[in-house]
What does this fold into?
Amino acid sequence: MLPLLLASSSMYRRELLARLQLPFTCSSPDIDESHRPGEPAIELVKRLAKEKAQALSGSHTAHLIIGSDQVAVLGDRIIGKPHTFENAREQLLAASGASVTFLTGLALLNSQTGECQVDCVPFTVHMRTLDQARIERYLRAEQPYDCAGSFKAEGLGVSLFQSTEGPDATSLIGLPLIRLIDMLLAEGVQIP
It folds into this structure.
């Protein structure tokens, strides 16, 4: 089996990939993650996932390189990581009683053959109706400023959900393991 390389510095993605009990290393790709004018959100995450994997292929020439990227979509607007309390409060107020769809782009690049599998896995969160006091309590408790959508689904953020729907709950955290396993199996990787 070719060595696995996760093209990410995200601790969330590292923790998810570790669930598969396969040895892997991590390296952070240096790419421009800008949204191109008119680019649909699905194409954006697929392109960025592939570019992240490709960015490391020159220095890792015989690896299976995993790239992933995620955006949250509220209505017709892409919402990213809030970075601040104020931005997070505004995102959650806008999402109150609405549905937020997380699109996670996934790429598996065999840097030896150049073959690259790319997909996008959607996951939708239907939010509870939230008032400002509840949002502020949540933000002070969890401080999810590095998370698209302003919540941590693997933590207290689940208390903000009315329901969820999608083919793979791990995609909500940023690495769709079910789809990744399909890709790894197609490359001949034996999953324990």
Notes: The chain has a mean pLDDT of 95.
